[in-house]
Amino acid sequence: MSTWFERNTHHVSEWSVEDLLALKGTQRVSLVVPARNEAGTVGGLVTRLRSTLMETATLIDELVVIDSDSTDATAQVAADAGASVHSSASIRPDLGTFPGKGEAMWKSLFVTTGELIVFMDADLVEWDTHFVPGLLGPLLTRPEVSLVKGFYQRPGQNGLDGGRVTELVARPLIALRHAELGGLVQPLAGEWAVRRSLFESLRVPTGYAVELAALVDTLALHGLDAIAQVDLGRRGHRHQDLFDLGAMATQILDAITRRGGQDREGDVVVLEQHLPSEEGIARRFREVCTAERPPAREVA
Q: Collapsing DSSP states into helix, strand and coil, what is residue 115?
């Protein structure tokens, strides 16, 4: 009997855009790019994807950038490049707003129409437009698959530049709590695709835990064969500094703890970090938001 890894691991070369267009039929595809202070990269990403997959081919029906409290020109640059741009805070203001990537992705459900949703990070510096058809391949060819994760080789020695939170936090958590997901090469990858019917049924952490939480909840609801992964080749992006990674790790740990039945009061964790200073050590107290949104289909 084949393993999950053998059955559900694909390569982007398995499908052509022409094949996927035929399989797509009347289904709509929404490409969503959550972005915060990515004016330097989001314009090129939108321009290339729009030209290749909306104008030359019609694999994407709408390209939406969700701007998450940017303080630079991210929104204007994305709009000038041809994206439909929404401020995360302005979508369903009656529901309030939280900072974070997951919040932007959850809010996207209220301004998109696709039965299939593809997510891409806005900070990519080394990538190609084949990421989108690669992620759509399993959804359009395998009805039992509802969530597709991308994986890729990173720049640097042995293709391992980056991925610190994956290797130091996410993968040990998977081994300890959800070993069935151990075959996922990059569980925190920002490039993934999902059926709307699944995503709107999930609780969504508002921060960086959104990717791992989606995998854990999909496993619980639909089993391991509802998840597939695709080798997308090579990818590079901007790295966050060590102290920002600490906040990301806190959000991921909280989300998995919640899914183990250990809820706690409040949606904020105070993370104490110690920074070198001229006086020796400076203590910084950082509020990390760990709020989660309910399934979108439950929101009136």
A: coil
- Please give the Cα distance from 205 to 292 (Å, whole number): 4
Taking the C-alpha atoms of residue 185 and residue 192, their distance in angstroms, rounded to an integer, is: 13
151 in helix, strand or coil? Answer: strand
By residue range, what is the domain housing residue 225? 4-253+286-298
Alpha-carbon gap, residue 204 to 234, rounded angstroms? 28
Question: 127 pLDDT exceeds 90?
Answer: no
Instruction: Identify the CA nearest to 106 among candidates 89, 122, 123.
Output: 89
Distance, CA of 108 to CA of 31 (rounded, Å): 10
270 part of a folded domain: no
- We report the CATH number of the domain holding residue 222 as 3.90.550.10
What burial letters (b/e) apply to 107-120, b meaning 16+ CB within 10 Å? bbbebbebebbbbb
Structural domain count of the chain: 1
**Cα separation, 134 vs 163, whole angstroms:** 21
Q: Is 164 contained in some domain?
A: yes
Burial class (CB within 10 angstroms; exposed 0-12, middle 13-18, buried 19+) of 248 = buried
Q: Is residue 185 part of a domain?
A: yes
Residue matched to tokens 């992964």: 229
CA distance 179 to 191: 22
The pTM for the full model equals: 0.92
229 in a domain, yes or no? yes
pLDDT digits 0-9 by tens, 74-122: 999 999 999 999 999 999 999 999 999 999 999 999 999 999 999 999 9
Q: What is the pLDDT of residues 140-176, one digit of tens each?
A: 999 999 999 999 886 655 545 557 899 999 999 999 9
248 backbone dihedrals φ, ψ, rounded to 5°: -60, -45
